[in-house]
Amino acid sequence: MVNRGSRCEIDVFPGRPLDNRLQGNVVDICPVGSLLDKSFLFAQRVWLLANTPSICPACSTGCAIFVDHNDGRVYRLRPRFSPKVNEWWMCDDGRFGWKHVHDERRITAPFVRDGERAGPADWGDVLELIRTRMADAVASHGDSAVAVQLSPMMACEEAWLLATWLRKLAPGATLTLGDVPAEGADTHFPLGASAENARFTIRSEKVPNRRGIEMILAAAGGNVLPREQVWDRMSAGGFVAVWIVGGYPRPGWASPALVAGARKCRFLVVQDLFPSELTERASVVLPACAWIEREGTFVNAAGLLQPIDRAIAPPEGARADGRYLYELAGHTGLYTADRVREMMIRDMPAFGDVYRPPPAPRHQH
Asked: Which of 105-119, 256-270, 327-341 has the lowest mean pLDDT?
């Protein structure tokens, strides 16, 4: 407490600055509301906000969170009680790292390039084009001529739809897991605690669903290769048709090896959030959704299958990834992640064990 009376201010202790990656939690635990988030200050009345339960995608810990939003716009993320994952906490990376969702550079409509001609396309036409060109590649060059790179930013249900569709079209097609970015080493809290004794961990793996995609690939079977081998084969002209899924929060995520390989593909589908070197080479560009705009499940580093709910709709002109993959795969009716997961459970019973945190305990006075 600095000064007194009407001049009193809440401040950090002299010589003890708040400089760790959990400092945003002081906003949640301040008992009198004196400590506030500058990025949310005066942005929205809290009673106007809807609170959608979700999972933080900033790392593979998979913290349970609330997405606070109103009128199609996100205003803040808050931690949600989850005794098996994050208790009441979340790191600053996740709390403040969602602003790309409303980035004006996002891809918002499907795009088709045919020789010198390029431009936006109707959703029905673009899906039929993909079916036709992929089938032509298989008919002309065999199953081994096509490949799909799945992204650890995808929901499990979306990855399953794309993988099973390709396996049905081309049983000998190649599947791979895309880039898994990592930064430094795992950080355990309290600081200095061992991994076994930590109450909270910020993981170096900066994707939410690597383990989930690996489960999908294992169940798909067949030709599943490390991404580096797939890129080398692409560079050697070994694939005629390739589908690459991105969805990472930062533009320019693709490695030089992937970009070089993509240049050798005759038919390239790129599903991503932002324009890039890959989309400039793509025959078809599909807008990807941010996790806030999709429903499904993620599998965290501890192997917990956790649900994500859609908080807001995709940008105008775009569609939820699961919706167009559901249609592409030939399924009819309304797309829901629960419906797809029911189909997945037939071959992968583990996807029936969804972890939903209990209600937060009420404190007794």
From this structure: 105-119
